[in-house]
Amino acid sequence: MDNYDVKDMSLAEGGRLRMEWAAREMPVLASISERFKKEQPLKGLRISGCLHVTTETANLMTTLQAGGADVVLTASNPLSTQDDVAAALVSNFEIPTFAIKGETNTVYYKHINAALDHKPHLTMDDGADLVSILHKDRRELLDNVMGGTEETTTGVIRLRAMAHDGALTYPIIAVNDAMTKHFFDNRYGTGQSTLDGIIRATNILLAGKTFVVVGYGWCARGLAMRARGMGSNVIVTEVDSLKALEAVMDGFRVMPMMKAAKEGDIFCTLTGDLNVIDKHHFEVMKDGAILANSGHFNAEINIPALEEMAATKRLVRPFVDEYTMKDGRRIHVLGEGRLINLAAAEGHPASVMDMSFANQALSLEYMVKNADKLENTVYGVPQDIDLEIARLKLEAMGVEIDTLTPEQEKYLHSWEQGT
């Protein structure tokens, strides 16, 4: 193969072994892969994926390949690539991969365009960068595309905005909105992997620290739960009154960001929005404050403002930039403000990505079967797919549940019987 761009092909064997390790925790995807091999539902279709290049993603790619697809993969974040996995996809599976951990923004977009050169029939996105560039700069390719999927909250927000403006030219399934995705991947996966990234980057003790969770969506709920479990005093900031009320009822302190900025030792943003930690917050933070982000883009912390305010900046540990303010206070930003769970750690555990990527595979199959019936908008994952993934996961875990009797089914669908 000569159609790829990875850091070091000599890393391939280590990546293959780590893919194998992750696959042990992905039984649902494995069962789908076996069926795909027999039925070939994606035969002859070109798929361009813009996803975090991890062991779990690699196992999704091989599942799609088993289903007959011609797959190309590029990174959805400049710091999220696992270089050994990228090499393994090329060397062991002949999947063209364009991803290097730490790549510049210029190279990042060059790689996305390389994936689009594949002339995809289907797109897979994690943040909607590929879809956005396809619609803005590569419109000559749009006639080939029958549909796509989106993995993240941030990407779904962007795509719904495109659909609202009439800019979206093909249907997208919001994998992020599946119950078996956001209930588990977002809450348990992000909760654990975000703390993992913060601890790996800093080696700090969380017990006794004041930990500010910025936002209270599913990802933030998971992080708040895990930070409390590690002994932190957790503060939640929100702009949504319902989510703020839920955080209060879950036992967390809730306050405006300006007040939390004065109290926090560690801050982590998970909102999908812009500048949620801003200049006026930096001005009141404690000496030694630690800032991280676990939302998709590195826009949640206003790093350009911090750069302007700081007297000096230095890298004090891998993934830890120390900004010394003019008054001597030090503020630390982890992973350049990018996804800390992938910048400094390995991302979500494979067992939760098993369900998320099962949603990806089955949603693509659904799209192939139904694209001609769908409008150019964003759809949720069909409920029968969601329920089937939950059933397969329980089966793989050896968990049995009850089923309704005919009498119970009838009762739930009737109105005649009362007290």
UniProtKB/TrEMBL annotation:
Listed GO CC annotations: cytosol
Q: Which residues bind substrate?
A: 54, 126, 151, 181, 185
InterPro entries with a match to the protein in the record: Adenosylhomocyst_ase-like_sf (IPR042172), Adenosylhomocysteinase-like (IPR000043), Ado_hCys_hydrolase_NAD-bd (IPR015878), NAD(P)-bd_dom_sf (IPR036291), S-Ado-L-homoCys_hydrolase_CS (IPR020082)
**Location(s), subcellular:** Cytoplasm
Q: Name one GO biological process term.
A: S-adenosylmethionine cycle
The protein's UniProt keywords, in alphabetical order, are:
Cytoplasm, Hydrolase, NAD, One-carbon metabolism
Reaction(s) catalyzed by this protein?
Answer: S-adenosyl-L-homocysteine + H2O = L-homocysteine + adenosine
Domain of life according to the entry: Bacteria
Locate the coiled-coil region(s) and give their ranges: none
The answer to whether the entry has keyword NAD is: yes
Any Pfam family matching the protein: AdoHcyase_NAD
EC number(s): the record gives 3.13.2.1
The cofactors required by this protein are: NAD(+)
Pathway terms, separated by semicolons: Amino-acid biosynthesis; L-homocysteine biosynthesis; L-homocysteine from S-adenosyl-L-homocysteine: step 1/1
- CDD domains linked: SAHH
Q: Where, in this chain's numbering, is NAD(+) bound?
A: 152-154, 186, 217-222, 238, 294-296, 341, 348
Q: Where's the S-adenosyl-L-homocysteine hydrolase NAD binding domain?
A: 186-347
Which PANTHER family does the protein's record reference? ADENOSYLHOMOCYSTEINASE
Query: Which family is it part of?
Result: Belongs to the adenosylhomocysteinase family.
This chain belongs to the protein called Adenosylhomocysteinase
Q: Which organism is it from?
A: Pelolinea submarina
* Lineage, top ranks: Bacteria, Bacillati, Chloroflexota, Anaerolineae, Anaerolineales
